[in-house]
Specification:
disordered C terminus; 2 helices
Length: about 100
């Protein structure tokens, strides 16, 4: 591998690491039930917060519905993380073809 290719590879690696770090520290918001439940999840998949609209807790019978809504809100946030990961890091996937398929 020539020196110019090696420098491009190192630059690409640095850019990819910076994009990964930015993604991991970004907070994504997911919601479900028309805003009944809102969650915040970092790109590293760390749950930051869960908020439940007090109006959703009218009776104890609503607990199962709230649990399901929390799961849906978390899945919504995780989908957003996956989409952003694909946008941010997907561009790097094809960039290694000229380096022996790494």
């Amino acid at each position: 591998m020539n020196q110019q290719a090696m420098m491009r590879l190192k630059k690409m690696q640095k850019q990819m690491m910076e994009a990964q770090e930015k993604l991991e520290s970004t907070v994504f918001t997911g919601s479900a039930g028309g805003g009944m439940v809102t969650v915040e999840v970092k790109g590293s998949h760390e749950v930051v917060s869960v908020k439940i609209d007090p109006e959703a807790l009218e009776s104890k019978d609503d607990i199962e519905m709230i649990e399901d809504t929390i799961v849906a809100a978390l899945n919504d946030a995780i989908k957003k993380i996956e989409n952003e990961t694909q946008k941010s890091l997907g561009a790097f996937g094809g960039g290694f073809g000229g380096f022996g398929g790494f």
